[in-house]
Write a structure and sequence with these properties.
The protein is of the alpha/beta class and 195 residues long. The protein has a single domain, classed as Dihydrofolate Reductase, subunit A, CATH 3.40.430.10. 27% of the residues lie in helices and 29% in strands. The protein has an eight-stranded mixed sheet with strand order 5-4-3-6-1-7-10-9, sandwiched between helices. A hairpin with a 3-residue loop joins strand 9 and strand 10. The radius of gyration is 16 Å and the shape is globular. InterPro entries: DHFR-like_dom_sf, RibDG_C, Riboflavin_Biosynth_HTPR.
Length: 195
């Protein structure tokens, strides 16, 4: 049985995972301090805990690895952030990049053909894998490797930047499997690819 590959990220109402200049300041969710609601943070934690392997593109890897390896040691870290940081460090990860030469924290680096390696990993027995990063997920999308999409839509318009969805060669038919509203008007929609 094949592993399931899930692409999920916070996304603006107009479809971007980062605003122009790779700005993700809008993605925190509710409130003037841009912090995620506790409920939404818990949802992301549960998604990571349910995954057996995380696949990262270079930019997302750099963002995550700049904070989470020591996120549990920050003086203002909440209990949820401490748990998330520890889970993130221990989680098996694969980073796809031709420009990074070293990774750490239970991570393996792939510098070759990302699509071939993702297809190989997906064909293995095992639990779900999550994929993040626009370029990497876009390549997997075009290759027909993504089984589920999870969009956590934040009610903000940024007008441009890095889109969640990439240009495709053909349609992908999806089936809605879950909707959920979080505090601050953040809406989760999960879709599975129809086979």
């Amino acid at each position: 049985m094949m592993r399931k590959l899930i692409f999920g990220m916070n996304v603006t109402l107009d479809g971007y995972i980062a605003a122009t200049g790779d700005d993700i300041g809008w993605s925190g969710g509710e409130g003037p301090d841009s912090s995620l609601s506790a409920e939404l943070f818990q949802w992301w934690y549960d998604q990571m805990r349910a995954s057996e392997l995380s696949l990262y593109g270079r930019k997302l890897w750099e963002t995550m690895s700049s904070h989470w390896p020591t996120g549990d040691q920050l003086p203002n870290a909440t209990p949820a952030e401490i748990e998330f940081a520890r889970l993130w460090r221990d989680m098996p990860k694969v980073v796809f990049s031709s420009t990074i030469d070293k990774v750490d924290w239970n991570t393996r680096l792939v510098t070759g053909d990302a699509v071939a390696e993702i297809a190989r990993l997906r064909a293995e027995d095992g639990g779900p894998m999550d994929i993040g990063g626009a370029t990497l997920a876009g390549a997997a999308m075009r290759a027909g490797l993504i089984d589920e999409y999870a969009l956590v839509t934040v009610p903000v318009l940024v007008g441009g930047g890095t889109p969640f969805f990439t240009a495709l060669d053909s349609w992908v038919n999806l089936k809605l499997v879950e909707t959920r509203t979080f505090p601050g008007g953040v809406v989760l929609t999960r879709y599975e690819r129809r086979r």
